């Protein structure tokens, strides 16, 4: 009796395991269609077939977007079954899910997704490009067949294209204004991207394109040529790659990155070191040298408040209202300050008050233009020698691309079978090269670049001024002599990224130094009384909009594997 029970239990486990094992799905076919509009927007339609073996309850899809792009009009549907749908967004893109009402067994269904993208068409001086990942690396199953359609606003004979990789391509067809690419057998975890180069004339004045004021075609061709030529680097011995990965960044640093010696030993700067606009200070001190950050916009807005071009008021602890007071009739403002004032005047037309979050949403669209205006106003060679940083970043780009392509080749080609003795060494060398390149790309530009003597003193003085602003004991011992000076300090504290700490110090020091009447008359009174208002009502709102919609990263040409979109999906 006991023996029969044991046998029965084993049979049940085996049968249950077989049922579980039998549950699986495949991706037999997908179709992705891109309709490129003259205004720079791109309408996307995806159809992904899931073939189920066993019972499934949901399918999902997530799409990654590059910083600098945004998506609207997302719609989902299902052919072959009934489902309810969910949709979510994040700073990285969006995700959608179809939940089957009663489960679907041993059947093929088609998951439909349509959406509209903005900012993905890049318009350079000499060429325009659309650079999508038509299939992302996040899929967990092999895709058996993929058709990709590009419906363009002009004749395809004016168009050229590149793809990464080309191994999955089976057919290219073109007719009138449509390109059709047919791919097959894309493995799980692999991506397919297509770089489409189009005439600039198609997008003249396109409001939903990303306009970049520089030539790009020679650099694009160079990148593509390097991608094609990467196979030759696989002949390099693994230990040579390892030594190369270690010593080249060190060599760049020792030759170009060591700072000059300057005769400046100040511990604190208790006065504003230079009479430069806060956006310029922000561009030199924060982030990449010469490129302003979000804090630069905030500091510019505050400088306009300080000079009584605009006014602000807080309501509760979340809402901030802006009012336009006067124009720059005397021409005192820099061009990048005036563009902020002009935008505020336009949005406050008729004397109405403007919510900060509305301004953040609108200004985020012109944020790249504003950044370029600030950068172009700075004579960067006066402050910084970027040669080492440029060399390090070039090294980083080449290293990451070469190593990624090499590792792909090593792991997914016949390399291992043909060269078993050197496989491990080459893999270690390529892995070291990838890590070294990635670290080089994320290192601050000050590591391999070098300050000029003037630039280093400039940088150190602002550093010491920031240290003074954040040292409560120093502020208390040597406080500014007037409310007006406090206001200037708060503007530059914002540009230097330490406004929150300075506001905290102000709240404790100001009541001891000035009368309540003096404090109340300051245009920055709301910050003294409500320090959290700045953090939640100003910075976070604008940073959220800028972080999701515009960023300098998409204003670049795009490296191999750097196309927008992609993502992946699954079923369960």
- The whole-number mean of residue pLDDT values reads 81
Shape: globular
Radius of gyration: 29 Å
Instruction: State the helical fraction.
Output: 40-55%
* Low-pLDDT windows of residues: 17-21, 416-420, 530-555
Number of E strands: 24
The count of helical stretches stands at: 19
Assembly annotation: single chain
Q: Give the distance, in angstroms, between the N- and C-terminal Cα atoms.
A: 40 Å
What class do helices, strands and sheet pairing give?
A: alpha+beta
Our estimate of the beta-strand percent is: 25-35%
Largest sheet: 8 strands, mixed
Folded structure, characterized:
The chain starts with a helix and ends with a strand. It is globular, with a radius of gyration of 29 Å. The protein has 572 residues and is α+β, with helices and mostly antiparallel strands. Helices cover 44% and strands 26% of the residues. Helix 4 (278-285) runs antiparallel to helix 5 (294-306) and helix 4 (278-285) runs parallel beside helix 15 (483-495). Strands 1, 2, 3, 5, 8, 12, 14 and 15 form an eight-stranded mixed beta sheet that branches. Strands 9, 10, 11, 13, 16, 17 and 23 form a seven-stranded mixed beta sheet that branches. A four-stranded antiparallel beta sheet has the order 6-7-4-24, with no helix packed on it.
Topology:
Layout: H1 2-22, E1 24-26, E2 30-36, E3 42-53, E4 55-64, E5 70-79, E6 83-90, E7 93-105, E8 108-118, E9 121-123, E10 128-130, E11 132-135, E12 143-151, E13 160-164, E14 169-175, E15 178-186, E16 192-198, E17 210-211, H2 217-228, H3 238-257, H4 278-285, H5 294-306, E18 310-315, E19 319-324, H6 335-347, E20 354-355, H7 356-376, H8 380-383, E21 384-385, H9 387-412, H10 415-418, H11 420-442, H12 445-448, E22 450-451, H13 453-470, H14 472-477, H15 483-495, H16 499-513, H17 516-520, H18 525-529, H19 531-549, E23 564-565, E24 568-571
Parallel strand pairs: 2-12, 9-17, 11-23
Antiparallel strand pairs: 1-3, 2-3, 3-8, 4-7, 4-24, 5-8, 6-7, 9-10, 10-16, 11-16, 12-15, 13-16, 14-15, 18-19, 19-20, 21-22
Helix pairs in contact: 3-9, 3-11, 4-5, 4-15, 5-15, 6-7, 7-19, 9-11, 15-16, 16-19
């Amino acid at each position: 009796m006991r023996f029969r029970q044991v046998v029965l239990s084993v049979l049940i486990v085996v049968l249950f395991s077989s049922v579980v094992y039998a549950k699986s799905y495949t991706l037999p076919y997908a179709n992705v269609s891109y309709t490129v509009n003259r205004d720079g927007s791109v309408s996307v339609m995806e159809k992904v077939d899931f073939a189920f073996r066993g019972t499934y309850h949901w399918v999902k899809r997530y799409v990654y977007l590059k910083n600098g792009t945004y998506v609207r009009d997302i719609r989902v549907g299902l052919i072959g079954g009934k489902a309810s749908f969910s949709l979510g967004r994040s700073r990285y893109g969006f995700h959608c899910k179809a939940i089957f009402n009663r489960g679907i067994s041993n059947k093929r269904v088609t998951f439909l997704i349509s959406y509209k993208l903005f900012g993905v068409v890049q318009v350079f001086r000499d060429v325009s490009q659309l650079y999508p990942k038509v299939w992302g690396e996040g899929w967990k199953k092999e895709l058996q067949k993929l058709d990709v359609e590009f419906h363009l606003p002009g004749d395809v004979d004016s168009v050229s294209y590149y793809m990464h990789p080309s191994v999955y391509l089976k057919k290219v067809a073109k007719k009138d204004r449509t390109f059709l690419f047919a791919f097959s057998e894309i493995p799980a975890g692999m991506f397919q991207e297509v770089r489409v180069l189009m005439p600039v004339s198609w997008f003249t004045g396109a409001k939903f394109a990303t306009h970049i004021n520089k030539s790009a075609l020679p650099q694009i061709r160079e990148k593509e040529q390097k991608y094609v030529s990467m196979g030759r680097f696989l002949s390099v011995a693994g230990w040579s790659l390892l030594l190369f990965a270690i010593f080249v960044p060190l060599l760049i640093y020792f030759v170009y990155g060591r700072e000059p010696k300057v005769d400046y030993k100040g511990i604190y700067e208790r006065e504003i070191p230079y009479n430069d606009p806060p956006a310029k200070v922000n561009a030199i001190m924060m982030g990449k040298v010469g490129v302003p950050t979000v804090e630069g916009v905030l500091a510019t807005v505050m400088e306009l408040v300080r000079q009584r071009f605009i006014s602000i008021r807080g309501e509760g602890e979340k809402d901030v209202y802006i009012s336009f007071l006067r124009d720059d009739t005397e021409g005192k403002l820099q061009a990048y300050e005036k563009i902020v004032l002009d935008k505020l005047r336009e949005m406050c037309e008729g004397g109405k008050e403007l919510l900060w979050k509305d301004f953040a949403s609108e200004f985020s669209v012109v944020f790249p233009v504003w950044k370029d205006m600030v950068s172009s106003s700075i004579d960067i060679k006066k402050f910084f020698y970027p040669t080492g940083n440029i060399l390090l970043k070039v090294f980083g780009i080449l290293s990451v691309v070469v190593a990624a392509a090499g590792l792909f080749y090593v792991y997914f080609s016949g390399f291992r079978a043909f060269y078993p003795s050197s496989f491990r060494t080459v893999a270690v060398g390529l892995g070291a090269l990838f890590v070294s390149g990635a670290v080089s790309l994320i290192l601050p530009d000050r590591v391999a670049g070098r300050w000029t003597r003037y630039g280093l003193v400039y940088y150190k003085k602002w550093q010491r001024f920031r240290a003074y602003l954040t040292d409560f004991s120093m502020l208390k011992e040597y406080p500014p002599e007037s409310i007006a000076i406090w206001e200037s300090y708060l503007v530059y504290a914002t540009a230097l990224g330490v406004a929150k700490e300075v506001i905290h110090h102000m709240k404790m020091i100001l009541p001891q130094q000035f009368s309540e009447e003096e404090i109340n008359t300051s245009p920055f009174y709301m910050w003294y009384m409500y320090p959290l208002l700045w953090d939640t009502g100003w910075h976070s709102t604008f940073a959220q909009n800028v972080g999701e919609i515009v960023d300098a990263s998409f204003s670049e040409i795009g490296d191999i594997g750097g196309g927008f979109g992609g993502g992946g999906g699954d079923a369960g």
